[in-house]
Structure formats: structure tokens, C-alpha cells
């Protein structure tokens, strides 16, 4: 797995260079100044997700069995397609009423892809997964992350 290059956090977090009378602040210090434990606790659910096994699927915890059965019918039981749609997340859905930049969406999607690969490998060592992040969509809503079990 390639190592992700260190991004320009000043571009991703435009507020950083404005701190300290224009001298700027690093991202970790900025988080300690403006963040809170409630947000950190909530973000843990995004950045270290929980997965469950159900009827041979590996799914995000909290899935709807009704939706699962509907997608099974709609795809004629195509397990890869069902898992891919059940497990997809839109990066823009992390926050509502906030307009992200393309750079932020690409960065977060790439980090979440890496996290999912590591977490799935740790939680299910005997299963191979494909983790996909669409980082070149036509519309911001199309920045999607998903995963499914690969066939042997």
C-alpha cells in the first residue's frame, strides 16, 4: 500500500494560516484549540467504523435488514453488488449544511479508504476485501467509499 503524501493542511483548513497574527498554527494545535470531546467521540465512529457479519455478508453496523433484502431482490442476489451498495458512504454526508472543497473530499475519502482497508483486515483476517473510493466524480455527491468481499 503506498504511503499517502503529507497534504497542504493550510489549503485543506484555510483557517490555519490566519492564526497567531498570521504566523499560522499546525493542525494538531488547531484541533486542541477549536475541537471538543463530543466531536472527537462522534468522529471515532467514522474513523474507526464497526462491522458485523450477517447471512454471509460483512456490513456496517446498524444496517437495515429490510434494505438488504430489497437490494437482494433488485440485484437478483448479486452478493458483491448488495455489499457494495449497503456499505457505501458519501463523503459529503459526514456533515450537513457545510460546503466542502474538492481537496477536502479527496483527502478524507483517501484516509477513510486506508482506514477501512486496515480495519477490515484486522476484524476479518480470513476474508479478502475490495475497498473503493471514487475520487474523480462529476459531482461532489459522488465522492463515495464502499467495500465488498472479494471472491476466492
Please give the radius of gyration in angstroms.
18 Å
* Biggest sheet layout: 3 strands, antiparallel
Tell me roughly what share of residues is in helical segments. 40-55%
The largest sheet has its strands arranged as 3-5-4
The geometry reads as elongated
SSE run: HHHEEHHEHEE
Mean pLDDT: 94
List the total number of helices: 6
What structural class results from the helix and strand content? alpha+beta
Tally of individual domains: 2
Could you tell me the strand content as a percent range? 5-15%
**Amino- and carboxy-terminal Cα gap:** 21 Å
Instruction: Give the low-pLDDT segments.
Output: none
Q: What's the total number of strands?
A: 5
Describe this structure in words.
The chain has 152 residues and is an alpha+beta fold. Helices cover 41% and strands 14% of the residues. The protein has six helices and five strands. Strand 1 and strand 2 form a beta hairpin. Helix 4 packs across helix 5 (79-86). It starts with 8 loop residues before the first helix and ends with a strand. The mean pLDDT is 94.
